[in-house]
Design brief:
Elements: H1 2-20, H2 23-42, E1 49-51, E2 55-57, H3 59-78, H4 80-85, H5 89-108, H6 112-130, H7 137-168, H8 173-182, H9 187-204, H10 213-220, H11 223-248, H12 253-276, H13 281-302, H14 307-336, H15 347-350, H16 352-366, H17 372-386, H18 390-416, H19 429-447, H20 450-453
Antiparallel strand pairs: 1-2
Helix pairs in contact: 1-2, 1-5, 2-3, 3-5, 3-11, 3-14, 5-6, 5-11, 6-7, 6-11, 7-9, 7-10, 10-11, 10-13, 11-13, 11-14, 12-13, 12-18, 13-14, 13-17, 13-18, 14-16, 14-17, 14-19, 16-18, 16-19, 17-18, 17-19
Length: 456
């Protein structure tokens, strides 16, 4: 809870920076604030506080909040140049910080009202940030599509919450569970509400067949904002998804399990197969993000003691790998004015450092040992296999092999194709340090996965 209050305070400070003319100090203040928020969050470990029956800070919430804050810190280092280019700098800082507030609320809610507030506090700034490049038609289109699709998803979500309230007489998660287990809930209405909420949450995590907004939004938005959406937003959405369905709705798992099974299989196959034919790196990574949502749905289906740890590790591994890839895509697209796969040709000769880090990040996303991504998929597959979803695990393995193909397209382009120009791609010092740290972290998490997996 202290971390949530501090992040909210940072958002307010960002708004006041314009009035009191300390914009130049805002960036170090935010970085220092995120470090402090992470430390305060650690102090909530094993406390299991419930605040006004609305927010619950158990170890689950603390662990996911920690991942979100760490990824946010890495993202701010990556996005320093993005903020420098903006004239309305304080507005961008405030929007990102308030989006983080929504993300933390989504991982720690104990009431349907707080879930809805968290989703909206996260989503509304993202609609604006997706269209923050006002001179780019693609960015404007991205924001418009994101807003319209997000509004539809919110409608499904609210309708589902209303039906669940009508069936149980409460927004509180524990009281909803009691109403269902005691038989006092109107089960027909409750089941429809659960399915409607499932549709709403599937939109938020870009799971097929509700993924169609993601490629256009990811490609049109500024690269830095795309990185934020594919990491922090997705982590928060899945943490909220898992908290709701693996606890509150587990009593009626027969209503939604088969639907999620089909959804996971579709997401894995559609995301990976469609990524193969993309020529734009950002669009390829967008479909890759859809595919990774399918892997995380496996842990949701498992519903066992491994699920929480599996999704936590997967979210952490996927997020740091994505931060590295999007950072390098931003560097290359800025230098060559293109984000196509061909723009990576010969990168190993013109900038070996970027090529090595990109290779490590791509190998992690593909699930190749000894990177963090390998154990992330291993734990996900294990949790699903133990739960008896053998068929879905086989589909996921096939999908992973397809994923290896399009990730290796970039690696082959970097090492085995000739670059059009011979000039070195310029890399800022903050990006060099960030990418070096992430590369080490990916390998370290692959070698010592227990450091994260044993948290939950």
């Amino acid at each position: 809870m202290k971390a949530l209050v501090l992040l909210s305070s940072l958002g307010v400070i960002a708004l006041l920076a314009e009035i009191f003319s300390f914009k130049k100090l805002l960036y170090p203040i935010v970085l220092l604030g995120l470090i402090t928020a992470f430390v305060l969050n650690i102090f909530d470990w094993d406390t299991n506080h419930t605040y006004f029956k609305m927010m619950q800070y158990d170890n689950y919430a603390v662990a996911f909040t920690g991942v979100i804050i760490v990824v946010a810190f890495l993202w701010f280092i990556m996005a320093e140049g993005f903020f420098k280019e903006e004239t309305n700098l304080t507005d961008h800082f405030a929007l990102v910080l308030f989006a983080l507030v929504g993300a933390v609320m989504m991982v720690s809610y104990n009431n349907m009202a707080m879930l809805f507030l968290g989703i909206e506090i996260l989503s509304i700034p993202m609609y604006i940030l997706a269209g923050s490049n006002k001179t780019d038609v693609s960015s404007n289109e991205s924001a418009f599509k994101y807003l319209i699709m997000g509004a539809f998803a919110t409608g499904f979500l609210l309708f589902g919450i209303a039906l669940i309230y009508g069936a149980t007489g409460s927004f509180d998660l524990s009281e909803i569970v009691n109403a269902v287990s005691s038989g006092t809930a109107a089960m027909s209405i409750f089941s429809v509400g659960v399915l409607l909420m499932l549709v709403g949450m599937a939109f938020k995590v870009s799971a097929a067949p509700f993924h169609f907004w993601a490629p256009d939004v990811y490609q049109g938005a500024p690269t830095m904002i795309t990185a934020f959406m594919s990491t922090i937003v997705k982590t928060a959405a899945f943490a909220a998804f898992l908290r709701l369905f693996s606890t509150t709705f587990m009593e009626v798992s027969g209503v939604w399990m088969n639907v999620v099974w089909v959804m996971a299989a579709l997401t894995l196959l559609v995301g990976n197969i469609t990524a193969v034919v993309q020529t734009s790196t950002k669009r390829m990574l967008a479909y890759s993000s859809v595919a990774h949502a399918g892997y995380m749905l496996l842990a949701l289906l498992a519903g066992n003691e491994y699920s929480n740890s599996a999704i936590l590790f997967y979210a952490a591994a996927y997020s740091i790998g994505s931060i590295a890839t999007f950072c390098i895509v931003h560097i290359i697209s800025t230098a060559k004015n293109s984000d196509g796969v061909d723009s990576f040709n010969g990168l190993a000769k013109t900038n070996p450092f970027l090529a090595i880090v990109m290779t490590i990040a791509l190998l992690s996303l593909a699930g190749i040992p000894p990177t963090a991504g390998f154990f992330a998929k291993y734990y996900i597959f294990t949790s699903a296999f133990v739960a008896g979803n053998v068929g879905l695990v086989l589909i996921a393995i096939i999908a992973s092999l397809i994923g290896v193909y399009y990730y290796f397209r970039l690696i082959i382009a970097m090492y085995f194709k000739e670059s059009i120009g011979t000039e070195a791609v310029p890399v800022e010092s903050n990006h060099k340090l960030l990418l070096l740290f992430i590369a080490i972290l990916i390998i370290a998490m692959g070698l010592f996965p227990d450091c994260v997996i044993k948290l939950l």
